[in-house]
């Protein structure tokens, strides 16, 4: 499920088309002329809204991370325990490959480029905020006696990075594939964290109520994106 199509001359339609081109061809293979030709608009209109190609990529980055943070907050509020909350985020990280594929692939293709941005850029701040949420989850799980003590900083980065290369091998269109891959990621990650692993089958079950809840949350978040102001 994706966002409703915007009018060709609107900034949202420009960003959506640019995002799909980046997902398909990468940033270096994407051009204003290609986006403009597809939408039937002038390159000058793209410049009017966003200025430069780099700013358009940054808009993609910011939009994506705002969405993921909003979604993470929804998921965390839906479950009472740190282990369920973390399992929900892990399942979602793979489901993105289906419900928000273009933006997810575009983000993942260029994640190394995003890491080169200035420390005080909004995109970097948003990524740090998301990592901070993972820090908090791990802290809470350790404090509650659910998780064994680990290096929270390193573990959070490993969790965040675990799904970042999924775009290179994940095959969309296979029924249940995202749920099964998410189940394996939960089993791998929480299996190494939980002190008592009796809850692991519930947390990783690809057809269970936890995944069903996450699936309901993701389209709601994707369907109501926080729009960026025109550049």
Automatic annotation (TrEMBL):
Top-level lineage group: Bacteria
DNA-binding region per Swiss-Prot/TrEMBL record: 31-50
Residue ranges constituting the HTH tetR-type domain according to the UniProt record: 8-68
SUPFAM superfamilies per record: Homeodomain-like, Tetracyclin repressor-like, C-terminal domain
Entry keyword annotation includes GTP-binding: no
A Pfam family recorded for this sequence: TetR_N
Keyword tags: DNA-binding, Repressor, Transcription, Transcription regulation
Protein name: TetR/AcrR family transcriptional regulator
Species of origin: Nocardia xishanensis
